[in-house]
Specification:
With 310 residues, the chain is an alpha+beta fold. The chain has helices at 8-17, 22-41, 106-111, 116-142, 168-179, 200-211, 238-243; strands at 51-55, 61-69, 86-93, 96-105, 193-198, 233-236, 248-252, 260-265, 272-277, 283-296, 302-305. Helices cover 30% and strands 25% of the residues.
């Protein structure tokens, strides 16, 4: 349908009275493009330190985190190979549906000069991504009980460090704790730390420690080298400030250890939009939904320092 040269009221009229499905289809396609644009343009960072997993249905799913494969043995001449094993850390995850409706009348569309067709779906896309990010941080902040009956951050997991402000020494200690981590069979798995996840209040300090030439922190000499310089990334999020502005976390590379995972129904990592036109009342309704859920796959992938004890 070619709308060039039409008056605004004619375009709106076609949107609600056109006998062909062409025009509503065009509006629907444009709305879906705007939805995806909004979803992609929100500056959320969770997908940089989580791993996406495919979930086939809404039933509770056990996430089996595979630890290190058992060390290889020396096989003597003519000897038999022994069966290797993976250590397992199983956690539960259940996909949920996030969604919402929004309806706007024909009169409101006319008054808004048609801008609503792009703006509402775009903002719905933004809301979908924010909602999923919030779910990730709600999970972290809740310090959930895992399958072993212990909280995510627990001394027995060796992922809860002595309280300290972010410094060269405390970051180095966190890196060491991760490198010295073992799986449930006692195998040293040497988890590499990819970065720090901090409250916004600590972001500047974390970035200073990452880039400073000389060591940062109490009791260091003016010429002591910064041994952790440029060895980690920094992500910050205000949702951590809302819970505890002093605590900070270390995150492993999700390709190496599945710490936090985000499950998506059938692997669909973007929200779905439906558009419906009213019959008894002139208007358009949008429904957006996203089937997803975050979960802890392995506590060895995320570490916590409670922060400055002062």
């Amino acid at each position: 349908v070619d709308t060039r040269g039409m008056e605004r009221l004619e375009v709106v009229g076609m949107a609600f009275t056109h006998s062909s499905s062409d025009f509503p289809q065009l509006l629907g396609d444009a709305s879906r493009r705007a939805l995806l644009q909004g979803y992609q343009e929100v500056e959320e960072t969770f997908d940089q330190y989580t791993r996406a997993v495919n979930v086939s249905d809404f039933k509770p799913t056990n996430l089996v985190g595979l630890g290190a494969f058992s060390d290889l043995d020396i096989v003597p001449e003519g000897g038999e190979y022994k069966q290797g094993t993976f250590s397992e850390q199983s956690q539960a995850m259940k996909i949920v549906t996030y969604g919402k409706l929004f309806t706007i009348t024909r009169q409101a569309i006319i008054n808004d000069d048609l801008g609503v067709f792009g703006d509402v779906p775009r903002k719905m896309g933004q809301a979908a991504r924010r909602t999923l990010a919030k779910a990730v941080f709600d999970l972290i902040n809740s310090n959930p009980v895992l399958a072993d009956g212990k909280r995510l951050f627990h001394a027995d997991h060796n992922n809860l460090l002595p309280a300290a402000l972010i410094s060269t020494a405390s970051v180095s200690a966190m890196q060491a704790a991760m490198r010295l981590q073992k799986d449930s069979d006692g195998n040293l798995i040497q988890v590499p730390m990819r970065g720090l996840l901090t409250p916004v209040a600590l972001s500047g300090l974390a970035k200073t420690v990452r880039t400073a030439q000389y060591a940062v922190g109490a009791g260091v000499g003016s010429n002591d080298p910064n041994i952790v310089r440029e060895t980690f990334e920094v992500w910050d999020d205000g949702r951590l400030d809302a819970k505890d502005a002093k605590a900070w976390c270390g995150i492993s590379n999700p390709a190496y250890v599945d710490g936090i995972v985000v499950g998506y129904l059938d692997g669909n990592q973007t929200p779905y939009l439906e558009q419906h036109q009213g019959f008894t009342v002139d208007g358009v309704a949008w429904k957006v939904r996203l089937d997803a859920a975050p979960a802890i796959a392995d506590y060895r992938g995320i570490y916590k320092n409670p922060g400055n004890p002062a």
